[in-house]
Design brief:
It contains 2 helices and 9 strands; from the N terminus they run H-E-E-E-E-E-E-H-E-E-E. The strands form 2 sheets. Strands 1, 2, 5, 8 and 9 form a 5-stranded mixed sheet that branches. It has a 4-stranded antiparallel sheet with strand order 4-3-6-7.
């Protein structure tokens, strides 16, 4: 006699059909993303009436905290050398107390932030090899469109650093 009970799929068939369904969904999603515009914005970042500005945010990855007390020298390139604009110390939130450039001071050009990480780690009492691997860390960037806001998040430790353009 033949059984009238429907056959249930095996676990293997069930898993394979789930994988196939997932792969087809990913393929469709990837195709949809490729057809859209790039994720990167090409226009200025609007801050609900706030003027364009340059700001910085520093994180000490060695201690896992804001880089409170880090001294930074800010300079502008004049075509031959970097000319000091000002020096400042990072506050308890890991930021400068005010924008580095804003309003009339926010101009196109090449700039440098010089982070005194050797002094910072010495002041924190970090037990590191001497001499330090990193001492003064230069972060160089340029402003080309004065209608855009630029925020520079900077992460650093005794052996590495990274920064990017934020918004």
């Amino acid at each position: 006699m033949q059984s009238t009970k429907p056959l249930a799929p095996s676990r293997r068939q069930f898993a394979l059909s789930g994988l196939a369904l997932g792969a087809s969904a990913l393929t469709a999603a990837r195709g949809a993303l490729a057809a859209d515009a790039p994720a990167q914005s090409s226009g200025p970042i609007v801050l609900h009436g706030a003027s364009p500005r340059l700001t910085v945010h520093t994180i000490d990855t060695f201690h896992g905290m804001a880089a409170t007390g880090l001294r930074i020298d800010f300079s502008r390139f004049d075509g031959e050398v970097y000319v000091p604009v000002r020096s400042f110390t990072i506050n308890a939130n890991g930021r400068a107390d005010e924008p580095l450039l804003i309003d009339d001071s926010y101009r196109a050009g090449r700039y440098e932030l010089l982070l005194h990480v050797d002094e910072y780690f010495a002041a924190k009492g970090a037990r590191l090899p001497r001499p330090a691997f990193l001492s003064k860390v230069p972060v160089r960037f340029q402003i080309t469109n004065v209608a855009e806001r630029i925020h520079l998040p900077i992460q650093f430790g005794p052996w590495s650093y990274t920064y990017s353009r934020g918004s």
